[in-house]
Amino acid sequence: MSTGIRVASLEDIPEGEGIAVAKDVTGTADDIALLRDYDGSVWALDDTCTHETASLADGWVEGGYVECPLHSSKFCLKSGEVQGLPATKSTCPHRVEIRDGEVYLFPNEAP
Amino acid sequence: MRRAVVVRRIVVVGGGIAGVGTVAALRAGGFDGDLTLVDAGEFPYDRPPLSKDFLKGDKDIKDIALQPQQWYDDQAVRLASLTTVTALRPDVGGVELSDGTTLPADRVVLATGGHAARPPIPGVASPLVHVLRTAEDADRLRSALTLGARVLVVGAGLIGAEVASTALDLGCDVVLVDPVHPPLAHAVGADVATWLHDLHTRWGIRTVHAGLESLVDRGAEVEAPGIGVFDVVVLGVGMAPDTALARAAGLDVDRGVLVDERQVTSTPAVLAVGDSARLRDGTRTEHWEAAQHDGQRAAATILGLPAPTTTAPWFWTDRHNLHVEVVGDMAAADVTVIRGSFDTPPFAVFGLRDGRVVGAVAVDDSTAVRAARRMIDRTLAVDPGRLADTAVDLRKLLRG
Ligand SMILES: Cc1cc2nc3c(=O)[nH]c(=O)nc-3n(C[C@H](O)[C@H](O)[C@H](O)COP(=O)(O)OP(=O)(O)OC[C@H]3O[C@@H](n4cnc5c(N)ncnc54)[C@H](O)[C@@H]3O)c2cc1C
Ligand code: FES
């Protein structure tokens, strides 16, 4: 069983914000956005918005959703499900674990 | 005694963001009756890319579909494409279609948008003169925007500025004319408006401060007296709402189909949304999100659900590789606060009134505009000094 990739310290990600992890680190097709909500939870989604080319790591994270920084489509942090236009496709979620203040990413594993 | 009418059949006229937003919200709100979306085009597509990536040729029509085809099936929405509604018949409870049939409806939602205005000046009918509202317009314009083409863009508002920027990207020689200086001051404030307009000059567009009074059709080219000779002229002088159906059916129309705050027209069974509708005693908006919100409000009205919470109006526009967003009402501000520097975007300008944010405009600063929106919605009192300080995290400011 995989132990995940240590990708960041929790303190690297301010609440309400995100950081992007490069795809050569994650081994995925797209970079992965680590997004931290105000309840302290950290979530991971494919970084590129399914609408155009915005980085969701630059988005606004709040209340279980990330809002795209370009045209404001929202995605569910947990499931990646798109909540409204202009994006029409959901994005891919990845599992995250926090151990001793370190963030471990399990690319392509469901949260 | 008044009996509640059970709404079983709804027809939405027009497949722009307002119409598609309406059908989506009706299904999301639990409507399980017959739902038909009638649109003149092949399938509903999104308009903002028409002056941006689609005009540039980086996207095709499939890429800008508002919803994939499958969505209409999944949502059990009957999409009557390549069809127009030719008359509203509230008297018989239905609409007449261009194929000669009548579609029964308990409620009709007008989402007809509008068409690009053509000022009544001589020479405007030349085939070298373009407008931009539909994908066909954009296709036709793109094929004229060849390398080195001499292009005159008339009107330096949102669409004119975007077209000028895209034409420049395509290698055209662009002149931009507008009688107002700076354009868009009412929307973004005079300082940002000036800065935005000056961007054109910095990128190599010639801007002309003048009103265009005539064009001279010279066959293969068009002369704009006093400005120059051009291969292509693009008019970006505004849109005219499509209100003909409403007018013919006797609905109240005045610079838009008049609606109340629930989107209901003067005829209770007919609602109107998006660019074609105007709130009685209000101004008509022509922005993407506002049109979608109208649709959500109309759906709530029809279903008897509480109206969705309102939020400060917001729109975006792009020019010269910069993303500009505007929220709230900058014109209502008595004080402005600059965060960052105009010399080095990202930056944002907040408009305050009585110590509260009432509007904001941001260049490449999505966080500032999202924070501003929440400050406006919560009528939060803010310290201007902290707003201006880029070391202060706006998210923290918002959370107190
Ligand atoms: C080039 C361009 C760029 C834009 N860029 C931006 C932007 O960057 N940001 C932003 O916020 N906004 C932008 N907008 C504005 C935004 O696109 C509009 O506010 C939005 O399209 C309004 O939606 P609507 O559904 O009300 O109308 P429309 O989009 O005009 O849709 C109306 C539809 O109704 C159909 N129709 C009309 N009459 C009938 C009939 N009788 N029968 C059947 N069908 C009918 C039409 O064919 C059309 O498909 C832009 C607009 C344009 C034109
Ligand atoms: S790029 Fe994300 S909504 Fe447009």
- Overall form of chain A: globular
CATH topological fold name of the largest domain in chain B: FAD/NAD(P)-binding domain
Strand content of chain A: 35-45%
Largest sheet of chain B: 5 strands, parallel
CATH architecture annotation name of chain A: 3-layer Sandwich
Number of domains of chain B: 3
| Strand order in the largest sheet of chain B | 3-2-1-7-19
Shape of chain B: globular
Mean pLDDT of chain A: 96
The total of beta strands of chain A comes to: 9
SS content category of chain B: alpha/beta
The tally of beta strands of chain B, per DSSP, is: 25
H and E string of chain A: EEHEEEEEEE
Work out the helicity level of chain A. under 10%
Highest CATH level, the class of the largest domain in chain B: Alpha Beta
* CATH fold field value of chain A: Rieske Iron-sulfur Protein
The low-confidence runs of chain A, each spanning 5 or more residues with pLDDT under 50, are: none
Protein chains sharing the most extensive interface? A-B, 18 and 24 residues
Q: Helical proportion of chain B?
A: 25-40%
Q: Could you please describe the fold and organization of this structure?
A:
The complex is a heterodimer of chains A (111) and B (400). With 111 residues, chain A is mostly beta strands. Chain A has one domain: Rieske Iron-sulfur Protein (3-layer Sandwich), CATH 2.102.10.10. Helices cover 4% and strands 36% of the residues of chain A. Chain A has one helix and nine strands; from the N terminus they run ββαβββββββ. In chain A, the strands form two sheets. A six-stranded antiparallel sheet of chain A has the order 1-9-8-4-3-2. The radius of gyration of chain A is 13 Å and the shape is globular. Chain B is α/β, with parallel strands linked by helices and 400 residues long. Chain B has three domains: 9-115 and 239-303, FAD/NAD(P)-binding domain (3-Layer(bba) Sandwich), CATH 3.50.50; 129-235, FAD/NAD(P)-binding domain (3-Layer(bba) Sandwich); 321-398, 2-Layer Sandwich (Enolase-like, domain 1). Chain B contains twelve helices and 25 strands. Chain B has a five-stranded parallel sheet with strand order 3-2-1-7-19, covered by helices on one side. The radius of gyration of chain B is 22 Å and the shape is globular. Classes of the chains: A mainly beta (111), B alpha/beta (400). Chain A binds chain B through residues 14-17, 38, 52, 58-60, 67, 69-72, 84-86, 88, and chain B through 17, 20-21, 24, 46, 48, 53, 65-68, 71, 288-289, 292, 314, 316, 323, 366-367, 370, 393, 395, 399. Residues 13-19, 38-41, 47-48, 50-51, 84-85, 111-114, 132-133, 159, 242, 245, 274-276, 286-288, 291, 315-317 of chain B line the site of flavin-adenine dinucleotide.
